[in-house]
Amino acid sequence: MKKVLVIDDNPTIVELIKYAMSLRGTYEVSVAYDGIQGLERIYADLPDCVIIDVKMPRMDGYQLVRCLRGDARTHNLPLIILSALTRAEDEMTGMLSGVDAYLTKPFRPSALNEAIERVISLTPAERQSRMESLVQAQAERE
Amino acid sequence: MSQQFRRLQILLVDNDARTHTRVQQTLSDGFALRCVCSLDEARRELDTALPDVLICEVVLADPEASGLDLCRFVRASAAWRQLPILLLTTFSTLQDKVAGFEAGADDYLVKPFDARHLMARIRLLSRLKRLELDH
């Protein structure tokens, strides 16, 4: 079974995410309730995918994503942001921080499960290529 | 000069001359790099010209000050608090990272660093800064 870590400070949302993933039935789910607790869980037992809220106490989701992407141990960890922030610039901030997929709440269970499978199947080369494209686009704007 | 053609201004604060050299070699023509070793030198450089991104080691030349102090100093300053800060450091434990983000860092990269990754982070941070300022 694939191990998925959910990091969200809202217990109700956590239960909804767990329910959504149970419909697929192939995930072992663990939970953390803020960014730092999430980091502790990740370094203790590396999951196959992490689902991250943005607005959390102690360390927000964007900081967490940058922290994970800046460390060789977690540089290629599949990451999904699942956030109530729906503006285009919120999604851009998430993608620029290094997340593989940005989903908004409320979410469809099927969309979440499809995103999990998609980001888990990404190869390091594909992730690197996507980031380089993003960086190139930034360089051209500058 | 138009924003489109302006080189990104980077201030590197690191006590290790080898890091100065490595970062200098890494950054291409699209960047203008200034390097200093201490907290006081960093303050003077920030007063002189605000960079687009501040890159900072935790260990500086100062015996009683660290890069975390510089992060806190920048975040407490009305003029500098929006400055994106990347901690580029040999410190790699979970506690180190938590301390870095709590001090005000926006990003955290562990040495030894990949050159392409460093360039990507600098560009992304400068872009994120503009997104935040625009909205």
Write the layout of secondary structure elements.
The complex is a heterodimer of chains A (142) and B (135).
Chain A: E1 2-7, H1 11-24, E2 27-32, H2 35-44, E3 49-52, H3 61-69, E4 79-83, H4 88-97, E5 101-104, H5 109-120, H6 124-141
Parallel strand pairs in A: 1-2, 1-3, 3-4, 4-5
Chain B: E1 8-13, H1 17-26, E2 31-36, H2 39-48, E3 53-56, H3 67-75, E4 85-89, H4 94-103, E5 107-110, H5 115-134
Parallel strand pairs in B: 1-2, 1-3, 3-4, 4-5
Structure explained in plain terms:
The complex is a heterodimer of chains A (142) and B (135). Chain A is built from six helices and five strands; from the N terminus they run E-H-E-H-E-H-E-H-E-H-H. By secondary structure, chain A is an alpha/beta fold. In chain A, helix 4 links the parallel strand 4 and strand 5. The radius of gyration of chain A is 14 Å and the shape is globular. Chain B has five helices and five strands, in the order E-H-E-H-E-H-E-H-E-H. Chain B has one domain: Rossmann fold (3-Layer(aba) Sandwich), CATH 3.40.50.2300. Helices cover 44% and strands 19% of the residues of chain B. Chain B has 135 residues and is α/β, with parallel strands linked by helices. In chain B, helix 1 links the parallel strand 1 and strand 2. Chain B has a five-stranded parallel sheet with strand order 2-1-3-4-5, with helices on both faces.
Shape of chain A: globular
Largest sheet of chain A: 5 strands, parallel
Helicity level of chain A:
40-55%
> What is the helix tally of chain B?
5
The CATH class label of chain B is Alpha Beta
The CATH superfamily of chain B appears as: Response regulator
Annotated CATH topology of chain A: Rossmann fold
CATH architecture verdict of chain B = 3-Layer(aba) Sandwich
How many domains of chain B?
A: 1
Distance between the termini of chain B: 24 Å
What is the topology, as strand order, of the major beta sheet of chain A? 2-1-3-4-5
CATH architecture annotation of chain A: 3-Layer(aba) Sandwich
Number of domains of chain A: 1
- Strand fraction of chain A: 15-25%
